[in-house]
Amino acid sequence: MMIQKPDKLYIEEKVKYYPLTEKIICKLAPISVEFVDDYRKIGEEKPFPQRAAEDKNSLALGEKKGEVLKSVGRMKDGEYYLFHEIDCMYDCEYCYLQYYFPTKIPVIFVNRDEVLKKIEEVLKTHPHPYFHVGEVCDALAFDHITEFSLDICGLFSEYENGIIEFRTKSTNISNITSIKNPPKNIIPSWTFSPERVAKSIEHKSPSFKERLLAAKECQEAGYTVGVRLDPVILYDSWERDYKDMVEELFSVLDSRKIDYISLGTIKLHKLLVEAMRERFPENQILLDELVPSVDGKYKYLKFKRVDVYRKMISWIRTLNNNLEIKLSMESKEIKDLVFNGFYA
Ligand code: SF4
Q1: Is residue 32 part of a domain?
Q2: Is residue 104 part of a domain?
Q3: Domain containing 254 — which CATH number?
Q4: What is the pTM of this model?
Q5: Could you tell me if the CB of 138 is within 6 A of ligand 1?
Q6: Residues 123-158: pLDDT tens digits?
Q7: What's the 317 CA to ligand 1 centre distance in angstroms?
Q8: Is residue 87 part of a domain?
Q9: Residue 252 falls inside a structural domain
Q10: Could you read off the pLDDT of 104-130 as tens digits, one per residue?
Q11: I want to staple 55 with a disulfide (CB 3.0 to 4.6 A). Which of 28, 105, 228, 260 is the partner?
């Protein structure tokens, strides 16, 4: 798949002479550039649906203010989300980034040295930290212009105690596959959806097959990859589509080089429900029966989630009996029911 280029580049005045800014301008040239005081004001005059749809086509370069690493309640000690970039050029209808940041434009923070310094501080002080890249952006979508993965490779070759995961739907793997004998503590992971889901509601993102080939190429380059089947979305033929997808994953990927498989079903904050109603009122998820869960998010009914997980796990276990399977953002009750329980 062709890597999409932003239509326009916004640059905060204060970062225009940063080395990473200059590198990105060179890589994107020719491109229309506008200098701004504060990236957070970009598009603020537009109504939400227009801003959400249009601003994704541009890119902003800014300075990170506030925390670069964040640890939230459900995370283990030493686990962090990385905020070196925010928002995403893809446009998945269920994406929580639609409401999460006031801005709707992908932003790359070009004070890279500070980002790397913060990561290094944790690597030096925590015995086994785990960094998630891709919770508030797509971890690789802009890697060809930021070369973040190359900097990370240098750092994680030196500190073997930490692990960093790049969560993506992208095929933008030229930098990471160029690394000879990549460090074992860098894990690229792909979120996969059946082709029907990818085509209909994961707008602008690579197809299932393209993601799968990117993951395979990374395995061949020496990586162990993560496989995320999340969110599983229910519709008439979901069982057939997801089962076919699981079979195709195992026929293409080398299961000895899969680090884990993570499963999750749809989870919508009430602000995301509002955003989806405004932008994608026909979305099938909104027409389904969703109930507020203990964490406040709207999810499928418990028995449906348990049924989904059990079916998915049985399809996976038929093909591989050893891989670690995790449930993403589920309660202990659901995990117990899925792995040990007796829901009839
Ligand atoms: S690829 Fe991920 S971050 Fe980007 S829009 Fe889709 S769900 Fe959101």
Answers
A1: no
A2: no
A3: 3.80.30.30
A4: 0.96
A5: yes
A6: 999 999 999 999 999 999 999 999 999 999 999 999
A7: 28
A8: no
A9: yes
A10: 999 999 999 999 999 999 999 999 999
A11: 105
Q: Report the domain count for the chain.
A: 1
Q: Is residue 169 in contact with ligand 1, taking CB distance under 6 Å?
A: yes
**Block residue for tokens 């212009």:** 145
Q: Which atom of ligand 1 is nearest to the CA of 169?
A: 1
- Provide mean pLDDT across the span 246-272: 97
Query: Cα of 90 to ligand 1 centre, how many Å?
Result: 6
Nearest CA to ligand 1 atom 8: 95
Q: 3-state secondary structure string, the chain?
A: CCCCCCCEEEEEHHHCCCHHHHHHHHHHCCCEEEEECCHHHCCCCCCHHHHHHHHHHEEEEECCCCCCEECCCCCCCCEEEECCEEECCCEECCCCHHHHCCCCCCEEECCHHHHHHHHHHHHHHCCCCEEEECCCECCCCCHHHHCHHHHHHHHHHHCCCCEEEEEECCCCCHHHHHCCCCCCCEEEEEECCCHHHHHHHEECCCCHHHHHHHHHHHHHCCCCEEEEEEEECCCCCHHHHHHHHHHHHHHHCCHHHEEEEEEEECCECHHHHHHHHHHCCCCHHHHCCEEECCCCCEEECHHHHHHHHHHHHHHHHHHCCCCCEEECCCCHHHHHHHHCCCCC
Q: How far is CA 152 from CA 78, 86, 120, in A?
A: 18, 18, 10
Confidence tier at 342 by pLDDT (50, 70, 90): low
**C-alpha radius of gyration, the chain, whole number:** 20
Residue-number span of the structural domain to which 259 is assigned: 229-344
Q: Is 250 in the pocket of ligand 1 (CB under 6 A)?
A: no
